[in-house]
Design goal:
Length: about 210
């Protein structure tokens, strides 16, 4: 089962309705948590964490009390696969020592994303470029500290709002923690990416239980 860490109700920023609809269509088990729940962290059926979009903006140089929810579950499930989408990716970038380039307005549109050959992106179509939906302010960027922590880029916006090519997705912990700045749940063509994450998470959980 995937645990979706979301303090907000579904809206056009977090795309939660699309995530839940896709999970139901593909029969992926999930549960939603909106608070730090001591009973939840005792459960043995959780195989992965999803940190979705949020209207809350992260300010890396300021206290981040609003991030208690995300930090709580990362702390109590330190070995589980994690996928951060939009806000979740921004959170993970700052968590792993990266930074955010702030913008005063949302970047809200369909864009071209170039995918690496990372297994998380393996789909039936096996394409290396997809149409994807984005809705965010601030762009996550690598820093020397993030590189030292092992963070690597795994997908790129062909043309960001500044006209340049920038990273659109990251692997934060090898084969385990990922972050996307696009919404794979928003388009049927990219739903397989979320399925790949679940398959990876469930497989990792099964292997861990067996050992």
């Amino acid at each position: 089962m995937l645990l979706v860490i979301a303090r907000n109700k579904p809206n056009n920023v977090n795309q939660l309705k699309q995530i839940y609809d896709m999970f139901k269509t593909r029969k992926i088990p999930y549960e939603i948590v909106a608070k730090c729940d001591p009973e939840m962290i005792q459960r043995k059926d959780i195989c992965g964490l999803i940190i979705p979009g949020s209207r809350y903006r992260i300010h890396p140089d300021e206290p981040q009390d609003e991030l208690e929810l995300e930090l709580y579950y990362l702390f109590h499930f330190p070995k589980l696969p994690v996928l951060g989408i939009c806000h979740g990716c921004q959170f993970l970038m700052t968590y792993y020592g990266g930074d955010l380039i702030p913008y005063n307005s949302y970047w809200n549109k369909d864009v071209k994303v170039e995918l690496s050959n990372d297994p998380i992106f393996h789909c039936k179509e096996n394409t290396r470029k997809v149409d994807a939906y984005v809705y965010f302010h601030d762009l996550p960027v690598m820093t020397p500290a993030a590189k030292k922590a092992g963070v690597r880029e795994i997908a790129w916006f062909s043309e960001f709002r500044d006209g340049k090519r920038h990273a659109a997705a990251f692997e934060f912990a090898k084969n385990r923690v990922y972050g996307f700045m696009f919404h794979p749940e928003a388009k049927k063509e990219t739903h397989a990416i979320l399925s790949n994450f679940y398959d990876k998470a469930a497989s990792a959980s099964s292997s861990s239980s067996s050992s």
